[in-house]
Amino acid sequence: MPIVKLNNAYLTRLTGTDIERIRASLPMMGSEVEREEEEQTDVQFFPNRPDLYSAEGTARALRGYLGIETGLPKYEVKPSGISFSVDPKLANIRPYLGSAVIRNVHMDNAMIESLMGLQESLHWAVGRGRKKVAIGVHDLDRIEAPFSYIAADRKTKFVPLDYEREMTMEEILAEHPKGKAYAKIVEEFERFPLITDAKGRVCSFPPIINGELTRVTENTHNILLDVTGIEPRAVGVAVKILCAAFVEMGASVESVNIDGLVSPDLSPDKRIVSVSACSKLTGIPMTAPQMTELLMKMRFGAEVIDEDRVAVEIPCYRADIMHDHDVYEDAAIAYGYDKIETSLPPSFTVGKPHPVQKLYSLVRNIMVGLSYIENTPFTLTSGELSYKMMHRPENPAALHVLHPISEDQTIIRTDILPLLMESLSINRSRELPQRIFACGDVVEDLVTSPKMAAASIHTAADFSEIYAVMDAFSQMMSIEYEVRESLDEAFIPGRRGDIYVSGEKVGVFGEINPDVLVGFGLEHQAVAFEMDLRGFVEEK
């Protein structure tokens, strides 16, 4: 979760109360106060509430929670007369655009910092690192409508933010800090997304960087907002949250025509919720008027229909309200979790670790003590990896996936060692030595059982090393074993051994067959052992 830095003076001005009262209320609204300083308060909100990632959004919620200003915030959106066109060539690159015009902005330094913080937090929470959504904020008075969102030639030049010279879009990806950070989002495309004004001047290269031409300063009074992305709902959420924040700053919002579609739509969603269902879920007895009052504290519009139904208007910025239960949760927050009477459940049990988990814990402690690092491979794998690449016969007891989503996930694992070999292959460019282990469930003939495996790769890996590791593991597990000659083709003949306990084979160890190493793209010697642990699980 991002850390939201709230300027104390700005926050108290927006909220209309003192900072101590604010700090006392924030945890009850679902936030965690990370740091309290003279000039700012740092807090964390859950990712489901991106509308709170700014002083403006936090103040709006606080005014309701504290009873200073309750009910649904009203947003008037007038048409701006400004239009945007979207290039059809963007369909497979970054096709979705949301926009708005913000008028009568009068920002001081605290407002600018709040806006920048909100922008970056939305890039994380909604935009998934700008891949799904990227935001541009521009000084509208320095550019001219109409605007175009185009798929531009990679050699197109403009002056990026914080630079004084023109650069091609390719140069920006290679040299600009933002370009290097986010190049992976667009570098594979033949053309790049670009926003230009009526004179062809560049406003933004989404999702990478804005143009220096449209830099927002304290002298900016009219703003063009652009939000681009690959998922239309996420784009719409970001636009609404930003517009609502600007209104809290005292600005007004105007709509933009995007190829015939009007953006933004700040009207509330509507639903009818049940009072009895809310009481049952939360354990809080309430009437319809009481529920209405609680919801209005959370900045919903709410009106009693009858004794069991309340009509609710959901603010445009509340993207987290997907079910009636989300509304009930807000009613409980407004009521106060600290006011809910505590009681013991009618029945309860005392938990204890499952025997298999106790076994895994012991295995982990031993292997970490032997300087091995735990690996957590997937449960689904393929027959190609598990058997063919390991030079082992197919296991007829393997459980196959009926409708696999890829060729790499066709069976449930029957062994763990092949997955460790895959991990070594993925990390073959990393420094040596690499010593890894894993323990977990495998499935054979619909029976789940515990297994473990360990592997080591470096220039001097040999049979003696892995024999010593296997022996140390067995001693610490109190396993009395004997070694017999092995025929497992995953290992080198003469440098491999089967592990037997009470006359039953439970594992194998040795030097990995060079043909197996080549198949996994490994260039150094590797050794490994694996062991079936089902006989070592304590009885419940």
Automatic annotation (TrEMBL):
PROSITE patterns: B5 (PS51483). GO terms for molecular function: ATP binding; magnesium ion binding; phenylalanine-tRNA ligase activity; RNA binding. Residues 266-342 form the B5 domain. Coiled coil: none annotated. The keyword Lyase does not apply. Mg(2+) binds at residues 320, 326, 329-330. Its cofactor is Mg(2+). Tetramer of two alpha and two beta subunits. HAMAP family: Phe_tRNA_synth_beta2. Belongs to the phenylalanyl-tRNA synthetase beta subunit family. Type 2 subfamily. This is Phenylalanine--tRNA ligase beta subunit. It comes from Methanocorpusculum parvum. The gene is pheT.
